[in-house]
Amino acid sequence: MEQQEKGKGSEERWSAAIANLSEMAINLDSVNKLLLKKAVFVDDETFNRASLSSEQARTIKVLEQRVETLERELDAAITAAARARSEKRQAEAAQKAAELHAQEVARELENTTKVFQLHMEELRTKQEEISKRDKEIKLLEAIIQTLGGKDSRSANG
Q1: What is the DSSP letter of 42?
Q2: Contact (CB, 8 A) for 77 and 85
Q3: DSSP symbol at 117
Q4: Is 68 helix (H, G, I), strand (E, B) or coil?
Q5: Residue 113 half-sphere exposure, CB side, CA atoms within 13 Å?
Q6: In a 3-state reduction of DSSP, which class is residue 56?
Q7: pLDDT confidence tier of residue 151, bands split at 50, 70 and 90
Q8: Is the entire prediction scored with pTM above 0.85?
Q9: Do 42 and 50 meet the contact criterion of CB atoms below 8 Å apart?
Q10: Gap between the Cα atoms of 62 and 68, Å rounded
Q11: What is the pLDDT of residues 123-142, one digit of tens each?
Q12: DSSP H or E segment with residue 25
């Protein structure tokens, strides 16, 4: 029984395969008829010219694509250059601002130095004045001691 079922399945497959082959034969015949109707037969020179023309068309298409790619790259390079110029201008402006700030700080430092020098001058003058008065005080104290010593000697003597 199993063999009968296997045999039936095998027959069905063969029938399907034969039907597919018949359909393929019909399709092949249709393609053949279509080619005979539409085909153009040319001599070798015309075929060579057509082949050259076709190859040139392919080359032109490849070159056009290359031109488009190069144009995109050029646009990208122009954009990058513009961005770089803008960044350069910003950097130059920042540098100029930094230089101006440095000049301002230098002027302020000079002014502070001058003020400090004036204060130092004033302090030296006052120190000299104090030193001079200190010497005068010591001289007066010595005079007072000398006079005070004479007074006490004359009072004792």
Answers
A1: -
A2: no
A3: H
A4: helix
A5: 6
A6: helix
A7: low
A8: no
A9: yes
A10: 10
A11: 999 999 999 999 999 999 99
A12: helix 2-38
